[in-house]
Amino acid sequence: MTILLVLLSIAILVLLIVWAKLNPFLAFIISSIIAGFLLGMPADQIAGSVQKGIGDLLGGLVIVIVTGAMLGKLVAESGAAQRIADFLMGIFGQKNIIWAMSITGLVVGIPLFYNVGFVLLVPLAFTVAYQYKISAVYVGIPLLAALSVTHGFLPPHPSPAALVAQFDANMGLTLFYGFIIAIPTIIIAGPIFAKTLKNVKASPLKTFQAETRPESELPGTFNSFFTALLPVFLLVGMTALNLNTSAESSIAPLIGFVADPAIVMLISVLVATYTLGLRRNFKMTQLMDIYTIATKDIAMILLIVAGAGALKQIFTDTGVSQVIADGLSTWDVQPLFLAWVITAIIRVCVGSATVAGLTTAGIIAPLVGTMNVDPNLLVLSIGAGSLMFSHFNDAGFWMYKEFFNVSIKDTIRTWSLMETLVAVFGLIGVLILNLFI
């Protein structure tokens, strides 16, 4: 009966978002309160549980998500993203243009939030397609596959970062494992899949073609790559140092401090403020304006994450987690696959990758200790499931259709199928990696 009530609570969440068109944050809060009543929590404890869930989850994530948005915005506004794209185009040339687009999406997608990366890089794809007289879909899909993978798999993006916090995983290890899985997934869903799309007709509007900056206004190649990838270097480097340093060592506390994701992101933003900002004659007031706009851009993401924390706490405080754990213990299903399936179903119903991932985390997080599964791989499994089959209820579906100016049939054939390939091969990668960890 308890599991049915949990499913009813999740169904209410889905209906509030899909049918009532309610904002996901409000939907999470309302469904959390309803879940509290349904599961027998005393009325005077529900509000406190909701507040605790919001505070506990946001407490460790606000710095990571906000500074990540600031870094991404500066990478875009400074011209560093354009420099990275131009450099890769020059290396790969027309013959291997789809590989250049994939690498561009991967490199630039690490610091940029998905919507920012989409708006910034898709016009570059249109410019390349126009220049070489080739299909915009053929050029664009490898780029978007890479952006999707970074969005779903790699911290410090909001969903994987939140999952790391919920599962008490290691952000550096998750990022390292994420790269191992991301690269083959991008290759399959990007360049290989794109070869089947050469004849798909697209007529991108001229409005969306990139306004390229003059060469003289762009930062240097090394500066652009180094600054954009600094969070990766620091997270992976500090994690490696931490794993190879004795707990009794005098530098262990310092390594632990610098390895904290919030400190990594703060250092990265401060470095970028100088390398892409002050050093290139940006005024401090200009940089702070850029950061303010970036914070506004991700305000709703923070609220959605907060709402997911509320639902998770209700499930924890009512003892539902133990009931679910007892129920799942009788299922002969690999835990990583089970988490992926739950996430994929919610994703198809709700349309939001972030909502799908965080809703699943609310169910699975309290069970990690009993599931005998690597929490870092669990983050990646849920991240893969959260990208399953984007369709009519996903804003990304309509952004793609309108930007590329293709039919709904071709949108499903290209965009929806690409997202499905990312989800499926992401899961396969997780299961293979699990054999060796």
TrEMBL record:
Protein's cellular compartments: Cell membrane
TM segment ranges: 30-50, 57-76, 96-122, 134-154, 174-194, 222-243, 255-277, 298-316, 336-365, 377-400, 412-436
Membrane topology of this protein: Multi-pass membrane protein
Any one of the GO CC terms: plasma membrane
One MF annotation (Gene Ontology) recorded for this entry: gluconate transmembrane transporter activity
Keywords: Cell membrane, Membrane, Transmembrane, Transmembrane helix, Transport
PANTHER family per UniProt: GNT FAMILY GLUCONATE TRANSPORTER, HIGH-AFFINITY GLUCONATE TRANSPORTER
The protein's name in its UniProt record: Gluconate transporter, permease protein
Organism encoding this protein: Algoriphagus machipongonensis
